[in-house]
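Subject: sequence -> structure tokens, single chain

Hey, anyone have a minute? Need the predicted structure for the following. Not urgent.
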Amino acid sequence: MKDKLLEERVLEKFEIEREYWKRRSINWATVIEEEIHKTMVRNIKLYL
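Reply:
Had a minute. Here:
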């Protein structure tokens, strides 16, 4: 997944999405597997 994020077109799409949310005053970020603790993932899944 991380390698996929580095592709130019994927980065362009993320920039479009970031701008979309920015204009709506909503913080937005990309999170990859290495950046989030497994416990947090489980907690989020329980919430959803």
